Automatic annotation (TrEMBL):
Naturally occurring in which organism (per UniProt): Flavobacterium macrobrachii
Name of the protein this chain belongs to: Uncharacterized protein
């Protein structure tokens, strides 16, 4: 069994050789169905993980655990 990096490279090379538009559309749909999104840190998130992060952020905001821009600037400039 190949490792994940080798598998990715193999799939990429195979996709680059595909000439069939219908197959490419199916691959695109499959990838979109998983709903991978990049986080701010550059990590992949599934749609469910992304939704959970957004819900967590909204909850923090509703709980009033937020900082104004000025508070953030002061905190950063102190360091």
């Amino acid at each position: 069994m190949m490792n994940i990096e080798a598998q990715r490279k193999s799939i990429i090379h195979r996709i680059l050789d595909v000439k069939n538009e219908e197959l490419l559309s199916k691959i695109d749909e499959l990838l979109n169905a998983d709903g991978y999104i990049y986080s701010v840190q550059g990590d992949f998130l599934t749609q469910a993980e992304f939704k959970n992060q957004v819900l967590d952020i909204l909850q923090v905001s509703e709980d009033g655990e937020v900082y104004t821009t000025e508070e953030v600037r002061k905190k950063i400039l102190k360091k």
